[in-house]
Design goal:
By secondary structure, this protein is of the alpha/beta class. Among the domains are: about 150 residues, P-loop containing nucleotide triphosphate hydrolases (Rossmann fold, 3-Layer(aba) Sandwich), CATH 3.40.50.300; about 70 residues, no CATH class; about 110 residues, no CATH class. It is about 40% helix and about 15% strand. Helix 4 crosses helix 7. Bound molecules: adenosine-5'-triphosphate (ATP).
Length: about 475
C-alpha cells in the first residue's frame, strides 16, 4: 500500500459492530468511519451506547459481532476486536481518556506526563539496571521524555503548575492534563470520553483550543464522545449520532444539526434541554416556536422525557418541514417527516407547536419547584415504573434535600452512568451529594429508577459503590478543592 493510499484511508473503520449484554442490545449493527487527521464526534442521548463503542475500540469489551479495522500511518492494519487492550495501546497506538478523570492525583503534573512514557523509557533501558544507570539509549530517551512532557505542559497551558500535585488542579486543568498525558504516548488515534463534562465556558474554550492544536499540529486523529453541543459543533469535522445503539445520522456538523431524526432524538429530553439543544443547533424557526407557548390542540402527551417514554411532539422547521414523533413513540426511528408539499390543505394545516411542550407549559412557565420535586411518572415507561414498589414511587427518595448543603452540590457526573441529563434530574429531586446516593436503600433505588426510567441500571453500574467511594474522597478533600462544575 503506498503512502497516498494510506493517508486517504480512514484511520478507523467500524463495521457492523454489535454488543449485547444479556438481552440488552447496547450497540446494534453500527458502521462508521473515523477519517485520518480529523475530529470525529460520537453523540447521542444518555445510554445510546457511546461509551460501549469506545470500550469495544479500546479492547475493554469484546464485541458480540463486527469488525473494528485500524489502519496506521505506515499502512499497518489491525483488527482491534481481536487484540487485547494493552496491545491496542502499544501497537495500534490508540489512547483514551475516561468520563471520570483518572490521573495520579498524588503525583505532580510533570510526573503524570513522565509516567505516561514509562514503557518507552523501560524499553530504552533494555530492562536492565545498567541501562537505567546510563549504558545504552536510556539517557537519550529520558531527555526526550522530559522534552515531550515540557512540550505538552506548554500546549495544555500547565507549565506554571508542573510541580503541583495533579489533584490540586482545577477541574478543567485536570481534563487538559489527561489529554496531555495521553498525547505523551504519541497516539495515532485519541479517544476522549466526554472531555468537556463539568467544564465552565472558559475551560471549554481552552479545551477546544487544545484539541484543534492537536489536530493541526500532530496528525493525531480524534474520536470524542461529547454532550456539550457547543464543543461538538465548534470543533468536529464529522459527527456520528447514535440512539439506542444504532446510528441515526452521520455527516458534517451542519448536516447533522439539521437532520430531523437527530432533532427528534434530542426532543426526547427535558423541556429545558430541548431548548438548549435547539438553541445550540441554531434552528431559529424552531426556537421561535418554543417562544409561542403550548398548543393544547396539537401539543404532545404528558411527557417528552427521553427517560419517561412516549412522545407526541411536532416541530416545524425553517424549510417548512414538519417532524412528528408519533404518539406512543419514543425515538427518532419513529419520527415522521412531512415535506412542505405534503402539508395539510389550508385551514386544516397544523399550527406550529411548541416542540417540547410535554407538560403543556409555555417556555416562560418553567415547572414550579413542587412540580420538579416529584414529577409524575407518565407515558409508556410508566408500565415499567408501575412494576416498581408502589410505596417507593409514591414517597420518592427518602433522603431528599431542599437545597445542596453549603450551597454547593457535588459533581454527580463523576458517578459513571450519571450524565448531565440525569444529574439535572437528580438535583431536581433533591439529590445533590454523593453521600445521599451512597445511603440509598432498595426503595430509594426503585424510586430513582422510576423517575429516571431506568431498568436495573443503577445497580448494574453500581452507583451506590461509586458514590460511597466518591463521598469518602470528597470528605477527605476541602470543599474548595473538589472538582466539578458546581
Ligand atoms: N457492562 C455492562 N453491562 C450491562 N449493560 C451495560 C454495560 N455497559 C453498558 N451497558 C448498557 O448499555 C447501554 C449503553 O450504555 P453506554 O454507557 O454505552 O451509553 P452512553 O451513550 O455512553 O451513555 P452516557 O451518555 O450516559 O454515558 C446502557 O443501557 C447501559 O446500561
Amino acid at each position: 500500500m503506498n503512502a497516498t493510499t494510506t493517508t486517504a484511508m480512514p484511520i478507523l473503520r467500524v463495521e457492523h459492530l454489535s454488543m449485547k449484554f444479556g438481552g440488552l442490545v447496547a450497540i446494534g449493527d453500527l458502521s462508521f468511519d473515523v477519517r485520518r487527521g480529523e475530529i470525529t464526534a460520537l453523540i447521542g442521548p444518555n445510554g445510546a451506547g457511546k461509551t460501549t463503542v469506545f470500550n469495544c475500540i479500546t479492547g475493554f469489551y469484546k464485541p458480540t459481532e463486527g469488525m473494528i479495522r485500524f489502519t496506521g500511518r505506515a499502512g499497518d492494519e489491525f483488527l482491534l476486536e481481536r487484540m487485547p487492550d494493552f496491545q491496542i495501546t502499544a501497537k495500534a497506538k490508540v489512547a483514551r481518556t475516561f468520563q471520570n478523570i483518572r490521573l495520579f492525583s498524588g503525583m505532580t503534573v510533570l510526573e503524570n506526563l513522565l509516567v505516561a512514557q514509562h514503557n518507552k523509557l523501560m524499553k530504552a533501558s533494555g530492562y536492565t539496571l545498567l541501562g537505567l544507570f546510563g549504558i545504552g539509549g536510556y539517557p537519550q530517551a529520558a531527555a526526550e521524555a522530559i522534552e515531550k512532557a515540557r512540550y505538552w505542559l506548554e500546549k495544555a497551558d500547565l507549565t506554571d503548575r508542573a510541580d503541583d500535585p495533579a489533584g490540586d488542579l482545577p477541574y478543567g486543568a485536570q481534563r487538559r492534563l489527561e489529554i496531555a498525558r495521553a498525547m505523551c504516548t504519541d497516539p495515532e488515534l485519541l479517544c476522549l470520553d466526554e472531555p468537556a463534562a463539568g467544564l465552565n465556558p472558559k475551560e471549554s474554550l481552552a479545551l477546544n483550543a487544545l484539541l484543534n492544536d492537536i489536530k493541526d499540529n500532530t496528525g493525531t486523529s480524534i474520536l470524542l464522545i461529547e454532550h456539550d453541543m457547543s464543543v461538538v459543533m465548534e470543533i468536529s469535522d464529522h459527527v456520528v449520532v447514535l440512539e439506542y445503539g444504532r446510528k441515526i445520522s452521520d455527516g458534517t456538523p451542519e448536516e447533522v444539526r439539521t437532520d430531523p431524526s437527530v432533532i427528534a432524538a434530542y426532543l426526547g429530553v427535558d423541556d429545558e434541554e430541548v431548548e438548549e439543544v435547539l438553541i445550540e443547533v441554531g434552528d431559529e424557526d424552531v426556537i421561535e416556536q418554543l417562544d409561542t407557548g403550548p398548543d393544547t390542540e396539537h401539543g404532545p402527551e404528558a411527557s417528552a422525557s427521553m427517560f419517561a417514554g412516549p412522545l407526541s411532539d411536532t416541530v416545524v422547521h425553517g424549510n417548512g418541514e414538519r417532524v412528528t414523533v408519533e404518539k406512543g413513540a419514543g425515538k427518532a426511528g419513529r419520527a415522521r417527516t412531512e415535506k412542505p408539499a405534503a402539508a395539510k390543505p389550508a385551514g386544516t394545516a397544523a399550527r406550529p407547536v411548541k416542540a417540547s411542550a410535554s407538560t403543556g407549559r409555555a417556555k416562560s412557565g418553567k415547572a414550579s419547584a413542587a412540580e420538579k420535586a416529584e414529577p409524575p411518572v407518565t407515558g409508556d415507561k410508566s408500565a415499567e415504573a408501575k412494576a416498581k414498589p408502589a410505596a417507593a414511587r409514591k414517597e420518592g427518595i427518602s433522603n431528599r434535600l431542599s437545597a445542596p448543603r453549603g450551597g454547593k452540590a457535588d459533581n454527580l457526573q463523576l458517578v459513571k452512568g450519571i450524565g448531565p441529563v440525569n444529574e439535572k434530574k437528580l438535583n431536581a429531586h433533591g439529590i445533590y451529594h454523593f453521600d445521599q446516593i451512597a445511603a440509598w436503600k432498595k426503595a430509594d433505588i426503585a424510586a430513582a429508577e422510576a423517575y429516571l426510567a431506568f431498568d436495573g441500571r443503577i445497580a448494574r453500574e453500581d452507583w451506590i459503590g461509586q458514590a460511597k467511594a466518591l463521598a469518602k474522597k470528597a470528605a477527605s478533600v476541602p470543599a474548595t478543592r473538589r472538582g466539578g462544575r458546581k
